[in-house]
Input
Amino acid sequence: MKRTIITFFVLVTLLFNAGAQNRLTIDATQKGPQISKYIYGHFAEHLGRCIYDGIWVGPDSPIPNINGYRKDVFEALKALNMPVLRWPGGCFADTYHWKDGIGPKEKRPKIKNVFWGGTVEDNSFGTHEFLNLCEMLGCDAYISANVGSGTVEEMTDWIEYMISEDDIEMANLRRQNGRDKAWKVKFIGIGNESWGCGGNMTPEYYSNLLRQYSGYVWEYARDKMIRVGCGSNGEDYNWTKVLMQNAARNMDALSLHYYTIAGPGWNNKTAATGFGEDLYFSGLKKGLRMEELVKTHSMLMDQYDPRKRVALYVDEWGIWTDVEPGTNPGHLFQQNSMRDALIASTSLDIFNRHAERVKMANIAQTVNVLQAMVLTQGAKMVLTPTYHVFNMYKVHGDAQLMPASLVSEKYTLGNESIPALSQTVSLDANGKIHLTLSNLNPNREIRLIAEVVGKTVSKVNSASCLTAPQSNSVNTFDNPETVKPAAFKAYRLLSTNQIEITLPSKSVVALELE
Ligand code: AHR
Output
């Protein structure tokens, strides 16, 4: 009997300690930077079935559409309050000649999409279709200009075509094509991956082009367009250094691309489904590398731009797996699991926590490509687990980051460990606190105490949780709701500033506190 009692107390103490080490201290006496809503941005390229089939089916399609835009996809994206959409690429952008995509559809030339499976592109989705979509979605447009195979003249003509109200040739051509009023285009990327598919340039060569091109953007779109310089590939810190050294004054933002590969490398990315805990763990671990990348690039930028005038835009990110069996390898169609939802939540947490420099991020890509929001098959559509994360996280957009320190237990597999918990806390314009928490451990729930210093919490207004039967669970066209958010009740107010939260294994939880 005595032994049983002792064992019981030892167990209770152990359990208490395991819980006690997980603590989130939120400092309401300090103000963090504003979390730019553009961190919740998106990217749609002419690649595979992202645009055609995904966003655009054309007005004559039997699939329900609004003037050619798929109705189901449009409505799903509209519900996300997408703040910005980047287009037309990606690698495609540096082969894109915008004049191919205007005017009567039957006269638009067909071209070969050289980077993405050699597919024939009929240009039926062009500037009008894209900018009208942005207006319908209520989001800002981010155009990627062609530097790799284009010219300054082609870019400035495009700018005039899109945003000029003057009585000049390009604006008149737009009017002739049925659009009287100029569109608003807030962001322009000057080249994409200029170190690779965008022209195989050295940073020295590209920085000269950036100075040249951005000078003309300035002349043609002064104060109307934010100029984004092409940034580095992952940890290519030299690229950032040279760009900042040579052209910090010639851009308003510098981009960064980083893709998570769960497998050993680009030649063995591994499948999006059916993986075991090893690939679950390595996917999360490699996703978390974003923190080091953002920190190091920001630190380098600080050396040349201590006032942080030049923002960092992570304008391509997400997990890149093998394509779904039987699909075109050049179309990058992949499934999306609970693991990927956690890669999304932890990456968004990283961007939020570095909101002083990271002012935009664009997950790749919106529909049917890489870590997509939605997948389509014929007339069917599913929302992915990543979609649900974006929906739960959108409350942070333009809210104030609340400084918070997290003490987290580790999630260990073999001899490797990562923090088991991840967080963002923000304060919105109405004084509500939004707390998003992820438990990366697929094997156990985690108890956490969240404490708000300097503000009382009287109630939890809402709480939801995204989890799944397995860490590799996906939503399919036959079972579209395997992974979806549900109401969350595993929390308890302990006092006016302390709340105990029990996070299910492999979950994302969102709470609104008042
Ligand atoms: O998102 C797919 C491709 O990844 C983009 O076209 C390119 O910019 C990157 O390499």
Notes: The longest strand covers residues 311-319.
